[in-house]
Specification:
It comes from Aspergillus leporis. By secondary structure, the protein is α+β, with helices and mostly antiparallel strands. The protein has eight helices and 16 strands. The structure holds 2-oxoglutaric acid and fe (ii) ion.
């Protein structure tokens, strides 16, 4: 059974404490859950998926007018198929995936318009004029939901309720729109959609279409991946990232996108349909220190979120 939490209960004072505790215990055990009543309006989700479809069907030369730089930073703009390979990062893919599986995806990375360090790389005027306003709005909705979730997690952990929110004041969060093109089933022998990895940040809110293929490692550390059946675009899957694991001991679950279960059985023309996803990554402020929040922890040098981020992302581009 896939764990789920109805977040509308957070807004009922008589149920708040209990839902926060349930939230934390589920994330400690599994590292992910389906978030029901997440607060991002369905109309905004529809607009975001429509904008994603519209952008990715543009000719490649149009998409390349707002390119991700050839380096890992800033993590902004359009990455064509083949540019980023998550399986190339050491400690991500299992040792058995050698040489690593290549990712069959193209993606667009967006930061906050308020990020003090990096500017967004938007499609220039005339290429796709709905893209910037749609995703700016979606980003802001994601940030509001993020702050509520961080409050719930703080309460569930027994910390003052602003504890985690205060570590996310700078809006260093990122939004990633991904298109996995239709591919032949046989391609999954040497490639995948996104190789097994953990997310680097605090929490991820993931929206996906109905195609499926998202898999989580369950039980934790088992090396076995279970399909997470897609409930369609309005469903939000919340998973824990590495920073929250360090701060509070919640489980940062390894996950990947591979051959969807359904197509394994149906074998439609030997092709796996295209897939779209939108992932909102809540990330700590760059200067935030990654040391346990619940206990004193050993004295010594702890990484800042920025140092950790640079370490983990190195090698993906
Ligand atoms: O496309 C998906 O469903 C998952 C993407 C993902 O895990 C990521 O970008 O970190
Ligand atoms: Fe991920």
């Amino acid at each position: 059974m896939f764990p789920s939490v109805d977040f509308s209960r957070f807004h009922d004072p008589s149920q708040r404490e209990e839902v926060c505790r349930q939230f934390v215990s589920t994330l400690k055990e599994y590292g992910f859950l389906k978030l029901i009543n997440h607060g991002i309006p369905f109309a905004q989700i529809d607009l975001a998926f429509a904008a994603a479809r519209h952008f990715f069907q543009l000719p490649l030369e149009q998409k390349l007018k707002s390119p991700h730089p050839p380096t890992t930073h800033p993590h902004r703009g359009f990455s064509p198929v083949g540019l980023e390979n998550v399986g190339a990062v050491s400690g991500y893919g299992s040792a058995t995936e050698s040489p690593y599986l290549r990712d069959m995806k193209e993606s667009y990375d967006i930061g906050s318009e308020h990020d003090p360090l990096y500017k967004n790389i938007w499609p220039p005027p005339g290429v796709d004029d709905a893209f910037q306003p749609t995703f700016t709005t979606f980003f802001e909705a994601g940030y509001r939901t993020e702050l509520t979730i961080l409050k719930a997690l703080s309460i569930g952990l027994g910390l003052p309720e602003q504890t985690l929110g205060q570590l996310h004041a700078d809006q260093t969060n990122e939004l990633r729109i991904t298109h996995y093109p239709a591919v032949a089933r046989g391609d999954f022998v040497h490639s995948t959609r996104i190789a097994a990895h953990t997310d680097f940040g605090t929490i991820t809110l993931l929206f996906q279409d109905a195609v499926g293929g998202l898999q989580m490692e369950v039980p934790p550390h088992s090396g076995q991946f279970a399909d997470i059946e897609s409930g369609g675009p309005y469903e939000c899957i919340l998973n824990v990232g590495d920073c929250l694991q360090t701060w509070a001991g919640l489980h940062s679950a390894r996950h990947r996108v591979h051959l969807p279960d359904q197509s394994r059985e149906e074998q439609i023309d030997g092709m796996v349909p295209e897939r779209f996803s939108i992932a909102y990554f809540a990330k700590p402020d760059r200067a935030a220190i990654l040391r346990p929040l619940l206990e004193a922890g050993p004295e010594g040098k702890y990484l800042t979120a920025n140092e950790f981020q640079h370490m983990r992302i190195a090698g993906t581009y």
